[in-house]
Design a protein that fits this description.
With 427 residues, the protein is mostly helical. Helix content is 68%, strand content 2%. It is globular and about 80 Å long.
Length: 427
Amino acid sequence: MQSFVDRFVEFSARLANQVHLRSLRDAFATVMPIFILAGLAVLVNNVVFPWIFEGDTLAHFKVWGEAIINGTLNIAALLLAPMIAWSLARNKDFDNPVSAVVIAISSFIIMMPMRLQLTPVGSDATVNVTQVLTFSNIGSTGIFAGVLIGLLSTELFIAISRLKALHISLGENVPPAVSKSFTALIPTILTLSLFAILAALLANVLHTDLIHLITTFIQQPLRLINTSLFIYSFGNFLFTLGIHQSVVNSVVLEPFLLINTNENMLAFANGQPVPHIINNIFVPTFGMVGGTGSTISLLIAIFIFSRQKSAKQVARLSLAPGLFNINEPVIFGLPIVFNLPLMIPFVLLPAIGIWFAWFCTTLGLMSRCVVMIPWTTPPILSAWLATAGDWRAVVVQLAIIVFGVFFYLPFLKIAERVALKNSGIEN
């Protein structure tokens, strides 16, 4: 067993040091404060303000959080693409990483659709518009495209820049900033021109764009998969790559789960047998305890068992948002993103929790979920409210949390050993 753990740690360390994965991890770490602020804004908007205000006053105060969300999560892809370019260029010892940032931003915008169909406020008819960017494309929906373009544009730009025949030399008396600009001139032209050619081909030949292709070939095929638990686990896996699980889950699962919830509530209100176990209340209540990945268990494991100061600091920062199922601080701060040992329980534990709760419900050990509750409802209270006051559901949720602590623990220890090994400190 010890030999296996040692080999797993060694493999994880090598994987963590792979230049592209390391660059992605560095990029996400750079924008981590943005995601933490977004999580706090969601918490205040959906938990704090509703306790204090109501009606129009509540709507006015919520503008604060909505503005923050627009400047953080809704431009996540636009933030990540240049940060990935900077990190990759720096990790590959490229002497002009700032130019790579500019190239990534330009390439990302070049690949955006030039024509969009939008519905004006107060109208049911769509109109065609041009020369606009939408939050849907530069936010969570476009993250995968941002990651891809950030990597590809930087690799292409660096490869072309290292061709000395394409360099323009202005002599030694020219300021360094000017000299670098002219050195990057031809590689910039060639890189952006290649992306523009790709965008033109997609628009004129296939009548589409990169965002639409990702939606069509990644999201839509998942609609054909009927195993909801598999889709949920896959969505969690995407989160470990920095792609929000709602990109998949909200598209594939949410419509069907919401129908189940409505039928459950109607049956419960009419005194009829509740038909569905799985719905969009059940899944987050027992598979997202403390946020995606059931990370409340990880926080508890860190507080009790971890000796790593940085992990405890992240856990303290993440505890308050985590109580309201907002866990971006721990996902991007510990991090779980691109951290192989922690990716495993992050993906598996929610599936185990959902399966265990389903099994208990099938045996009649707890009631079915019949009350629509906010996703920010804290653990324990969420189980009690969702099942219309069934204390047995609280016990089931507690059992999932306790099991999760010990399920996360060995992977947490491996992750800490990997961190020590990568920092040059051996036990």
